[in-house]
Design a protein that fits this description.
Blueprint (H helix, E strand, L loop, with lengths): L1 H6 L10 H32 L1 H17 L9 H5 L2 H14 L4 E5 L4 E3 L2 E3 L4 E5 H5 L39 H18 E5 L6 E2 L5 E2 L5 E5 L3
Antiparallel strand pairs: 1-4, 2-3, 5-8, 6-7
Helix pairs in contact: 2-5, 2-7
Family: Belongs to the cytochrome P450 family.
Protein name: Dwarf plant3
Keywords: Heme, Iron, Metal-binding, Monooxygenase, Oxidoreductase
Length: about 220
């Protein structure tokens, strides 16, 4: 990542200076830590609450491990790309949890939306949950169902977990990679039992149980 930031340049050939590189790194650490951590937590919870899904995700990871040569240390991007079902689990968690629940835009011109005029210069909130919980886009939207992503490429504007357009989160691929690596090891070696499975959920700044998902983690064999 550091190499890419140092080498990056705009259309005029200007490189990022040291302060700009530091700002980007701090943004990755701060903006990515909380959101990735919470999605990892919820994906773990959802899998544990759905034993069939847990078993399918674990079987996929076991198959990947069997395909890795003995000379290889750790996972590679090739292994990551084989995690098709786990990717569906993560996308479904992102849709259902809505870790980034709103974004802001400013109208650059007068525009009509569903018969309403938004005047130029007005600030607008985009409510992601209204998209992700739309039954016309996602049937039975409150159900955790990773299979809805099998062979499915969402239309533009229907999956906003990382934003949209020019303001798309620059860390989206890194976040999914981090979450996948954690879940890979969790599925192969651990199980989780929540202490308070019906604990109330707090939604700001990110959705999470008020007990911070207090749970017992047990190491198991693969």
């Amino acid at each position: 990542m550091m190499d890419r930031l140092i080498e990056a340049q705009d259309e005029r050939g200007r490189h990022l200076d040291d302060d700009e590189i530091i700002d980007v790194l701090v943004m990755y650490l701060n903006a990515g830590h909380e959101s990735s951590g919470h999605i990892t937590m919820w994906a773990t919870v959802f899998l544990q609450e759905n034993p069939d899904m847990f078993a399918r995700a674990k079987a996929e990871q076991e198959a990947i491990m069997r395909s890795i040569p003995s000379s290889q240390r750790g996972l590679t991007l090739r292994d990551f790309r084989k995690m098709e079902y786990l990717s569906q689990v993560i996308d479904e968690t992102l849709r259902l949890v809505n870790i980034s629940f709103v974004s802001f835009r400013q109208a650059t011109r007068d525009v009509f939306v569903n018969g309403y005029l938004i005047p130029k210069g007005w600030k607008v909130q985009l409510w992601y949950r209204s998209v992700h919980m739309d039954p016309q886009v996602y049937p039975d939207p409150t159900k955790f169902d990773p299979s809805r992503w099998e062979g499915h490429s969402p239309r533009a504007g229907t999956f906003l977990a990382f934003g949209l357009g020019a303001r798309l989160c620059p860390g989206n691929d890194l976040a999914k990679l981090e979450i996948s690596v954690f879940l890979h090891h969790f599925l192969l070696g651990y199980k989780l039992a929540r202490t308070n499975p019906r604990c109330r959920v707090r939604y700001l700044p990110h959705p999470r149980p008020v007990d911070n998902c207090l749970a017992k983690i047990t190491r198991v064999g693969s």
